[in-house]
């Protein structure tokens, strides 16, 4: 089930930003304990704020997908395996983000952080796979705009 171009672009841009800010935070967090760590501490804090704010936008977009995309596609039986994997993966990320924010125990927080990072790094590949398989099943050829080039100008779009 093809999404409205505006919603599709918003989802791609938001998940790209989540991946970039999460990766940048992880790198900066590792570098903050080095000799030149003070600036990396600030970068890590900024990336965490951007990541959290972007995650709030992602929650709104995921909520928009429920009636528009998820329920309709489920009823038609399309792309159920990767769709269920996408739903489950996003649920794990939401629950672990909640745990990162509210966990009082350092042991629990470390465990939850490791899960969040591992699942977060797997999400982009799962998203691309979901798009490619979904387009293939309905007979549409995946375009570079849908998979990797979400930021290309609209003139390159295959949409009428």
Features:
160 residues
Written description of the protein model:
The protein has 160 residues and is mostly helical. It has one domain. Helix content is 79%, strand content 0%. The protein contains five helices and no strands. The chain is elongated.
Low-confidence stretches: 146-160
Number of domains: 1
Shape field: elongated
Radius of gyration: 18 Å
Secondary structure topology:
Layout lengths: L4 H27 L5 H40 L3 H23 L3 H32 L6 H4 L13
At a glance:
By secondary structure, the protein is mainly alpha-helical.
């Amino acid at each position: 089930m093809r999404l409205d171009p505006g919603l599709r672009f918003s989802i791609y841009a938001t998940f790209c930003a989540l991946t970039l800010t999460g990766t940048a935070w992880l790198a900066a967090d590792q570098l903050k304990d080095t000799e030149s760590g003070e600036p990396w501490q600030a970068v890590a804090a900024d990336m965490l704020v951007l990541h959290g704010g972007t995650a709030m936008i992602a929650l709104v977009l995921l909520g928009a997908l429920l009636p528009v995309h998820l329920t309709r596609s489920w009823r038609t039986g399309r792309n159920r395996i990767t769709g269920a994997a996408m739903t489950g993966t996003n649920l794990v990320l939401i629950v672990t983000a909640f745990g990162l924010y509210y966990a009082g125990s350092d042991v629990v927080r470390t465990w939850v952080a490791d899960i969040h990072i591992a699942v977060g790094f797997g999400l982009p590949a799962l998203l691309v796979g979901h798009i490619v398989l979904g387009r293939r099943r309905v007979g549409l050829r995946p375009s570079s705009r849908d998979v990797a080039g979400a930021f290309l100008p609209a003139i390159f779009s295959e949409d009428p």
